[in-house]
TrEMBL record:
Pfam families: AMP-binding (PF00501), AMP-binding_C (PF13193). The keyword Nucleotide-binding applies. The keyword Lyase does not apply. One of its GO terms (molecular function) is long-chain fatty acid transmembrane transporter activity. Belongs to the ATP-dependent AMP-binding enzyme family. Residues 24-360 form the AMP-dependent synthetase/ligase domain. One of its GO terms (biological process) is long-chain fatty acid import into cell. This is Long-chain-acyl-CoA synthetase.
């Protein structure tokens, strides 16, 4: 922990430091140690670095230069990971596209990237072609990259010179996150901020050793995978096992098969595992530490005891957040501590805004109370923000405690636990979290309003007992009868699976505020149980059906979407 503290506290954005340099240096020090394992094989650090360099050479030949963007649309694979590393070693930016996106949403994301080249997994070509601008993209498949890399001359295997010149403040990744505009935003991950996570979450929190293997079944476009998991692996010089996707029935078989001693999680994953019948294999592993966020306090101890896990490195963070909390001391039911400057302040529950006192200043909540989390923005702790400068400015609060100070507004409620510790409580605003993904209510509303039978709608997240996050619920004013099969099919075409509302409530009208925003607080508080005489439909594997007793339990048990 002492070795990693300087990297967290005193690392400067202007120094020559990068993700690629960390990986490259490790490959030079331990070329024979296994770096990555998957069903398609395994590579040592030395083998992986050589292949990364060859991929960097292919990208350079395709016109990619320092500062350019390389879009990446792929499921998890060794080659996807290596192309990401090749991109950042060139000093370029890896634009990590969510493979659930389609149509106008994907087109919007492609427009943000303005990529020099889009690297595509062949099986996702049909998804790409649903985007109107697909024909304008310079596309190269992973298969084509492999062939070009294999045919490249020997000098292509050498480390690219750009890697040693890259500075911390330069962009490394664009990671897409839902915002209040109704379309995804691309949060910027600089090398500097990734390296602070590498030192803080990876070094202070997870503390892997060289003989450890971390199992990752989360999508590699997810920040928990590309920053938290990969950072922890590289910090310890450990190995990373990659699964194509999460499978609740095969999870422990994979853990044992890959001989994993660690894994990365989101809260939903843990709940699904706990809901499975007990099997002997779930105790026949060597997992000693896990890292992730969203593990609910009510299942924390049961999960740890049932699966025999020594340490849970729960953390709090977000793709765009300039700080993170990590449970470094193995305490129960906490998101951990953060030594970087932050405040937990009083807020307005109706608007979600931080409250100012009579002097125009913010006030911290007391220990044990819930408040809005703010992270201080300084030269050493910058806010990378988004590709859209207007969206970046919206997340900043100025003159909070004194004139001239600046704070990043996380939009999250946390409980101040004392000694710099917090526990995550809830998410504010027009975004809620479901299935480990952020869902923008306005994006879902836009899809609903395209349906001919919907006149008006409001979308919000509601709690489902036994589930993590909030499930989507829509209150709709109809022009014509609700066609349950048509609505489910149309929404599935326009939205990612996790964004399709689980509940649809038919209402006569929607009350609006003076700024013409739907009053969602009352609707959210009523949820599906407080709908009164209003008809409520629920999403099943067969489409929408009338609400039935036991549906929430089916959702919690993963028997329904």
């Amino acid at each position: 922990m002492a070795r990693n503290a300087p990297g967290l506290l005193v690392r400067r954005p202007t120094t020559k430091s990068s993700i690629g340099a960390v990986f490259q240096d490790l490959a030079g020090k331990q070329p024979e140690r296994t770096f990555v394992i998957a069903d398609e094989g395994r590579l040592t650090y030395g083998e992986a670095n050589e292949r990364v360099n060859r991929y960097a050479s292919v990208l350079r030949d395709a016109g990619v230069q320092r500062g350019d963007v390389v879009g990446l649309l792929s499921h998890n694979s060794i080659d996807m990971l290596l192309v990401m590393l090749a991109t950042v070693k060139l000093g370029a930016v890896s634009g990590l596209l969510n493979y659930n996106q389609r149509g106008d949403v994907l087109d919007h994301s492609l427009g943000i990237l303005d990529a020099r080249v889009v690297v595509l997994e062949e099986s996702l070509r049909e998804s790409l072609e649903t985007a109107p601008s697909a024909g304008q993209q310079n596309v190269m498949t992973l298969d084509e990259m492999r062939a070009a890399a294999d045919g490249a001359p020997a000098p292509a295997a050498q480390n690219p010179s750009e890697c040693a010149e890259t500075r911390g403040h330069e962009k490394a990744y664009y990671i897409f996150t839902s915002g209040t505009t109704g379309m995804p935003k691309a949060s910027i991950m600089s090398h500097h901020r990734w390296l602070k996570s590498y030192s803080g979450l990876g070094g202070l929190g997870v503390r892997l050793r060289a003989d450890d293997t971390l199992y990752c079944c989360l999508p590699l476009y997810h920040n928990n995978a590309v920053t938290v998991a990969l950072g922890a692996v590289l910090n310890g010089g450990a190995s990373m096992a990659i699964a194509g996707k999460f499978s609740v029935s095969n999870f422990w078989d994979d853990i044992v098969r890959f001989d994993a001693s660690s894994f990365v999680y989101i809260g939903e994953l843990c709940r699904y595992l706990l809901g499975q019948p007990e099997r002997p294999i779930e105790r026949q592993h060597r997992v000693r530490v896990i890292v992730g966020n969203g593990l609910r306090t009510d299942i924390w101890r049961e999960f740890q005891e049932r699966f025999g896990i020594e340490r849970i490195a729960e953390f709090y963070g977000a793709s765009e957040c300039n700080i993170a909390f990590i449970n470094a001391y193995n305490l129960d039911e906490t998101a951990g501590t953060c030594p970087l400057p932050h405040k937990v302040v009083r807020y307005d529950p109706d608007t979600g805004d931080a409250l100012r006192n009579a002097k125009g200043r913010l006030e911290q909540v007391k220990t044990g109370e819930v408040g809005l989390l703010l992270a201080k923005v300084t030269s050493g702790q910058p806010f990378d923000g988004y590709t859209d400068e207007g969206e970046t400015e919206k997340k900043l609060l100025r003159d909070g405690f004194r004139k001239g100070d600046c704070w990043f507004v996380t939009g999250d409620l946390v409980r101040r636990q004392g000694f710099q510790h917090v526990a995550f409580v809830d998410r504010l605003g027009d975004t809620f979290r479901w299935k480990g993904e952020n869902v923008a209510t306005t994006e879902v509303e836009a899809a609903l309003e395209r349906l001919p039978q919907v006149q008006d709608c409001a979308v919000y997240g509601v709690e489902v007992p036994g589930s993590d996050g909030r499930a989507g619920m829509a209150a709709v004013v109809l022009r014509e009868d609700f066609d349950s099969s048509d609505v489910a099919g149309r929404l599935a075409e326009m939205l990612p699976k996790y964004a399709v509302p689980l509940f649809v409530r038919e209402v006569q009208s929607l009350e609006q505020t003076s700024t013409f925003k739907s009053r969602k607080v009352e609707l959210r508080d009523a949820g599906y149980a407080g709908a009164g005489d209003d008809r409520v439909w629920v999403l099943t594997k067969e489409g929408y059906v009338p609400f039935y007793e036991g549906y929430p339990e089916d959702v919690a048990g993963a028997r329904q979407p």
